Amino acid sequence: MFNWAAFFIYSFVSTFTPGPNNIMSMNFASQMGIQKSYPFNLGMFIGRIITMILSALLTGLLYQFIPNIQFPMKIIGALYMLYLAWNCLYNTISANKKEIKAKFINGMLLQFINAKAIIAGINVMTVIIFPFYQKQIQLIGFALLFAFIGFLAGLSWGVFGTLFRKVFISHRKVINITMSLLLVYCAISLFI
């Protein structure tokens, strides 16, 4: 019998805990507000839908080849997280020199190299869903549900960033350095 509690607990823990999506969502929203950061969140949602559907449809294949692709994905994911960390830090250094933009395409592309999101999606499919459901329509349904939970997580972190915007603006340097360090930690934790 399918364990809905396990699915939702895993989904919420894996999507609401700090990671590149949530950190970037909070960072953009704290700097420009939730409305202007929405394109980035929408891009994350669409990218996550695509990656989760691919994970769902290719679960068996990916499960078989994970040992072969896991290390290169970690390297690519870590490099991108370091790039995001640099952008966070760069925004601290060049405070008002240029206006930052939360772009749809950046949010979407982040999903294709976000090791945390990809591994979480593969885990939920292979460990929780695949033993009970193998029909493509069922897998797509779970992929959409998992992506939607991730979208809610990103928006929640964005709302948090907006609510504490004044605090973030007045302590911008410390917060951006902290966000950068958290992203560096995320990159390093892929190899620990």
Account of the protein in words:
The protein is mostly helical. The chain has one domain (20-26, 36-93, 102-189). It has helices spanning 4-16, 20-32, 34-57, 59-93, 104-113, 115-129, 136-163, 165-170, 172-189. The protein is globular and about 50 Å long. The termini are far apart. The model has no long low-confidence stretch (mean pLDDT 81).
| Coarse morphology | globular
Largest sheet: none
Number of helices: 9
Proportion of strand residues: under 5%
Please write the string of helix (H) and strand (E) elements: HHHHHHHHH
Task: Compute the separation of the termini in Å.
Answer: 34 Å
Q: Runs with pLDDT <50, length 5+?
A: none
Work out the helicity level: over 70%
Structural class of the helix and strand makeup? mainly alpha
| Global Rg | 17 Å
By DSSP, the count of extended strands is: 0
Integer count of domains: 1
Overall mean pLDDT stands at 81
